Amino acid sequence: MNRLSARSWRLLAAIGFWLLLGAAFTAGGTIGLLLGYASAGWLAAFSLGAWRRQDEFARAAQKFSWVFGGLFGLLGSLALLPLILQPDLLDPLLGLIENALGGSQRPPHPAAPAIVLGAIWIVLGQLVGFLVCWVGWHVTKQ
Amino acid sequence: MKNRIRTLRTERGWTQADLAAHLDVSRNSVNAIENGKYDPSLPLAFKISELFGLPIEKIFQND
User: Fold this and answer.
1) Residue of A nearest to B26 (CA)
2) Contact assignment for B38 to A57 by CB distance below 8 Å
3) Which architecture does CATH list for B2-53?
4) Most buried among A33, A57, A70, B63, using CB within 10 Å?
5) A57 and B35 in contact by Cβ < 8 A?
6) For residue B17, what are the CA distances in angstroms to B6, B22, B45?
7) pTM of the predicted model, to two decimals?
8) How is residue A108 annotated by DSSP?
9) Residues of A with CB below 8 A from B26's CB?
10) Across-strand partners of B3?
């Protein structure tokens, strides 16, 4: 594993994370929750591995992207809240999350799907902000 | 910050990939440093200085 490049570690981090997260949503219930934790653990472990193998230029890109991309992604996700509150978009998403949380059973609380959707929305906003800044950094540093 | 890394590298007949391998950094890093788009850290600047056998101030100059 030590011979793998930082890029390989990043790729493994992303593939494993999305596979486990997909499985978590598919399974739902307690198993889904455990798979969700496993996906977070996988992402953290392989991201740390990638970080340790990166050079300072790549680290600078990531720091810049998390600071500015993360901040503006967070603000953007809040600014775009009215978009996700449209019933045509909100109802199917809540249904999907409700299903993932409870499977065939009832979710733990009626507000739970909305809270989970809110958290996912913010994380997605930060992720998009990060990616935009990361790509921008590399384009401007060519 | 300006630098003479491209000149020093080509004098030795090295590609950016060769220099990157010597410094244990990516080729993108070498490209960004050569183009003055990224200023290396002090430890990396010392590494570059040792590799070329020149004092840092002979390689890097303030704009």
Assistant:
1) A55
2) yes
3) Orthogonal Bundle (1.10)
4) A57
5) no
6) 12, 9, 17
7) 0.81
8) S
9) 55, 57-58
10) B60
